[in-house]
From TrEMBL:
Protein source organism: Pseudomonas schmalbachii
Transmembrane regions listed in the UniProt entry: 29-47, 67-87, 99-118, 124-147, 159-180, 192-214, 258-279, 291-312, 324-342, 348-369, 381-406, 412-435
Record's subcellular location: Membrane
Protein's UniProt name: MFS transporter
Membrane protein topology class: Multi-pass membrane protein
Superkingdom of this protein's organism: Bacteria
PANTHER family in the record: PERMEASE-RELATED, TRANSPORTER, PUTATIVE (AFU_ORTHOLOGUE AFUA_6G08340)-RELATED
Organism classification: Bacteria, Pseudomonadati, Pseudomonadota, Gammaproteobacteria, Pseudomonadales
Keyword line: Membrane, Transmembrane, Transmembrane helix, Transport
């Protein structure tokens, strides 16, 4: 992130503001805000994914079927989608500090409360409540960053923030395995109950800390000098040009590219989301039962995805080519998922296919988001990106319910992953056929 500041300075320094003072100002802001936000997003991802490991032990205790589990996972995303926009609007009225504190404390309490569910319906209700509690956290942070950083810095800072979710995926497996192995019976709670308690409490603590640590806007920051506040204000003011165009939302709805990109994202997200919530069950299907081993293997795709995100991003930037990079990545994931069924009984091969396929599905997400800004005209970009996100995000509801139903009906996750492979191939075809390269030529601003 420090390199981002240095790259930004030469083209954006204005008269009367030395590069050194700007660097010091933004470095202070980065080190004040970003560690907190990155840790918060890491805990956020852990508290979403912990249920995938708890499922391995709680099924017998609460008579949880795979279909009910899928509905529970989908209920989270349904609530998140429904309450995402109201939460963001509420943040603009009450401020980021109050909103983010409320979100973190509530999602932490709901996570801890999930430890005490006794029926599948209670789990579904708890996941729906978790979706309500978390709604607005990610878009709220993205909005919050616009209060502090100019766009030239915001891209790389946002990328660092997003990578924490992938790091969380690497942490969740080993952490869950350790908690469920060593804390079973503590406080009279079972292993899966302790998992929810131990992973939920940090969110509550961090949320309370955030009330004292976060500042709504630069002008309210008593940890910035008057000169530093002026520097930030002036840099942000440069981006608020009076001649900037704003399209109507009806124009967004008339743009075919929004629906094409939304369908592509729906297909990709179906794959990456299924990986996140069903991977531990898939690994146990390989014949493994030790929670620590399952946790360590579950971390492999996320570790490989970090490498894949970096290499794919670097290559696509170097060649200024997005479609075939993304399409190829999607097809690699689909191929590996399809071949999983043929690897039954071959542990090493199955783990390799699962790791590569899952890493490819996860790596496709940031690569996909390089396409909408080039596909949409500047006037409708903001509304179009939000619409694409909503279309794709609905996969969190549909795919999870479908996977759970298939697993309950057939007794096999391999059939469900075959279905996901087909969906991914459809997404690649929509991308490569429906969005020609000429539509992604750099648009004038």
């Amino acid at each position: 992130m420090s390199e981002a500041v240095e790259q930004y300075l030469p083209s954006s320094s204005t008269a009367g503001q030395s590069a050194q003072s700007m660097k010091a100002t933004y470095s202070k802001v980065i080190w004040r805000l970003m560690p907190f936000l990155i840790i918060a997003f890491t805990i956020n991802a852990i508290d979403r994914l912990n249920v995938s490991f708890a499922k391995l032990r709680m099924g017998e205790d609460i008579a949880l079927t795979d279909a009910a589990y899928g509905i529970g996972v989908g209920a989270f995303y349904l609530a998140y989608i429904l309450f995402e926009i109201p939460s963001n609007l509420y943040m603009q009225r009450t401020g980021a500090r109050a909103t983010l504190t409320r979100i973190m404390v509530l999602w932490g309490l709901v996570t801890v409360g999930t430890a005490f569910v006794t029926t599948p319906n209670q789990l579904i209700a708890a996941r729906f409540l978790l979706g309500i509690a978390e709604a607005g956290f990610f878009p709220g942070v993205i909005l919050y960053l616009t209060y502090w950083f100019p766009s030239a810095l915001r891209g790389r800072i946002t990328a660092a923030f997003l990578m924490s979710a992938t790091i969380a995926g690497m942490i969740t497996g080993p952490l869950a395995g350790t908690i469920m192995t060593h804390l079973d019976g503590v406080l009279g709670l079972k292993d899966w109950q302790m998992l929810f308690v131990v992973t939920g409490l940090p969110a509550v603590a961090l949320g309370l800390f955030g009330w004292f640590w976060l500042t709504d806007r630069p002008e309210h920051a008593n940890w910035l000098s008057a000169e530093e506040k002026t520097t930030i204000r002036d840099q942000l003011a440069l981006e608020h040009r009076p001649d900037a165009g704003h399209g109507r939302f009806v124009d967004v709805l008339r743009e075919p590219g929004v629906y094409l990109a939304g369908l592509v994202y729906f297909c990709i997200y179906s794959g990456s989301n299924t990986v996140s919530y069903w991977m531990p069950s898939l690994i146990r299907g390989f014949g493994l039962e030790d929670m620590r081993t399952i946790g360590m293997i579950a971390a492999l795709p996320f570790a490989l995805a970090l490498v894949g995100m970096y290499l794919l991003g670097r290559s696509s930037d170097k060649h200024q080519e997005r479609r075939w990079h993304l399409g190829g990545t999607i097809l690699v994931s689909a191929t590996c998922f399809f071949l999983l069924g043929f690897a039954q009984g071959h542990l090493v091969l199955a783990v390799i296919l699962m790791t590569i396929g899952s890493a490819a599905a996860l790596s496709a997400i940031p690569l996909f988001w390089t396409i909408p800004p080039s596909l949409l005209s500047p006037g409708i970009a903001a509304g179009g990106i939000a619409a694409i996100s909503c279309i794709g995000g609905s996969a969190g509801v549909v795919s999870q319910i479908a996977v759970g139903a298939i697993k309950s009906a057939t007794g096999s996750l391999y059939v469900a992953f075959d279905m996901i492979a087909v969906v991914l191939v459809i997404g690649a075809l929509i991308l490569l056929i429906g969005i020609p390269a000429k539509r992604l030529k750099k648009r004038p601003h």
